[in-house]
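In response to reviewer comment 3 from the previous cycle, which asked for concrete evidence that the modeling workflow produces usable outputs, we include below a single protein chain processed end to end. The sequence was submitted unchanged, and the resulting structure tokens are shown without manual editing.
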Amino acid sequence: MLGAAAPVHRLLRAAPSGSRASHVRRRRHGTVTAVVAGVAALTLAGCGGSSEPTVDPSMNSDLLASARASGASAEQIAVLEGGEVTFEQYQAAVERTIACMRDAGIEVVGDTVTEPRGFPEIQYSFAQSSAGRSDEQTEAIADDCIRVNSMYVEAAHQTSPGSLEAQEKNFDKFRPALIQCLRDNGVDVADDAAQGDLFTESGRIWETKKIDCLSQAGVGR
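The workflow returned the following structure tokens.
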């Protein structure tokens, strides 16, 4: 289900002119969610409890092919062509996305390195509105900045063996809420479903209903 999420992105609700947005609505970027959920599902499906997650090289090839087809930047494609993505490469790609948004007049906050899921990542937030544009136009520009500059590199970073291992160790506390969200949205899922299957179904729910069960369950907070 390769299609974004890199990561966890958040949207700031519109605030009065000249003030900092006071309420943050957590929102995982949909396209990145689909990419990450798809790669993670393929990686984690069939992993035993004691097995370390590994990434099939073909998955990075799929990311590279998708990046080329979607018009990703030369810098992003060059990173993917190099194989394993380093944190420094990931950070540089995210910084290009953030610079793109700011150059377009879109406010970005929280662009620091944190480890809420057990591995280093940048969970920045961007404004829902910007001067002279509708909310839809603002989001379209932000989405384009992500797609061009960092979307596929972010997906590669989040689905690297080290990142997946960290997420797997932290996953049990989110499992009940994620399963409940999936069931509330019509998915017949067992209590002991594999993590990869839960990621797959979460991606499908996002694509069909625009409901983000991963974020609702607290994954990535």
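The radius of gyration is 17 Å. We consider this sufficient to address the reviewer's concern, and the full set will be provided in the supplementary archive.
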